[in-house]
Write a structure and sequence with these properties.
The protein has 257 residues and is mostly helical. It is 39% helix and 2% strand. Strands 1-2 form a two-stranded antiparallel sheet. Helix 3 packs across helix 7 (169-184) and helix 4 (114-133) packs across helix 5 (142-153).
Length: 257
């Protein structure tokens, strides 16, 4: 089956049919963080609205690397349950963070500087795709792309040796996922998805006990879903197996770049 024939949407377990793409996926239908912007001060409001209205250009990854990076991002944090008008510009937000070299203030001994790690990682992903399927990552089907990325997740990439001599595949996978998650959940549409109340300034949160929602928040309304056919989302590997203990040098963190 060609990738174009694979429906990437999550499945409704009751009907076996793909779920309808939504303006607001998640368990808090009708909730909008932006509806509360009149309660924020001007500086807070400007910061949050810029994340919605000012999509940053791709500056770090360009040309073929940009195409590859966007394909990788589309698999590590899929948005196939969102309609086209409510997609979070995840690749652009990640690229901005990498371009600006936004680091955490530490670096593992077995990792190069953050920007170099991302370039080496993309090189490695394409090399693994060629090794397994004789094609570039962007030309693979969704299940094949998942298989390529899973070799990084489980810490067992087959190639390229020269890249993994320069950095830990496990720490690269952690870096990639951390960059993705931080970018995704910086966006108000992601806040709506998880029912996050948004900035509490100058108005504070005041229901701090018993897990009660604030008056402007919504109650959770869960629904059942299953991963699309061919996806590895359903697969589970214990952390001890996916990330075996590494002995010797290269496991600790050092100072800033």
């Amino acid at each position: 089956m060609q990738d174009s024939e694979i429906d990437r949407r999550p499945i409704d377990p009751r009907t076996g049919q793909p779920l309808t793409r939504r303006a607001q996926p998640g368990y808090y239908p009708g909730y909008s963080t932006l509806s509360q912007q009149s309660f924020w001060d001007e500086a807070t409001r400007n910061v949050v609205l810029a994340r919605v209205n000012d999509v940053p250009p791709m500056r770090f990854f360009r040309d073929e690397q940009e195409e590859l990076f966007k394909a990788v991002v589309a698999r590590i944090l899929p948005q196939d349950d969102r309609d086209a008008d409510h997609q979070i510009p995840l690749a652009q937000l990640m690229d901005k963070s990498i371009f600006e070299d936004n680091i955490d203030g530490y670096q593992y001994e077995d990792m190069p500087p953050m920007q170099q790690a991302h370039r080496l990682g993309l090189q490695a992903i394409d090399a693994i795709a060629h090794h397994l399927y004789k094609r570039r990552f962007v030309a693979l089907s969704m299940p094949q792309q998942d298989e390529v990325l899973d070799t990084l997740r489980n810490g067992k990439p087959p190639v390229p040796v020269d890249v993994w001599r320069q950095m830990s595949s496990t720490h690269y996978w952690t870096l990639l996922m951390q960059t993705a998650v931080e970018a995704y959940y910086s966006h108000p549409l992601a806040w709506d998805e998880i029912g996050f109340g948004g900035p509490a300034y100058p108005r504070p949160y005041f229901r701090l006990e018993n897990g009660e929602p604030e008056p402007w928040e919504k109650d959770e309304q869960r629904y059942e879903w299953a991963p699309p056919p061919g996806s590895l989302s359903h697969a589970y590997t214990p952390m001890t197996e996916a990330h075996p203990h590494r002995s010797g040098s290269g496991t600790g963190a050092s100072g800033t770049h």
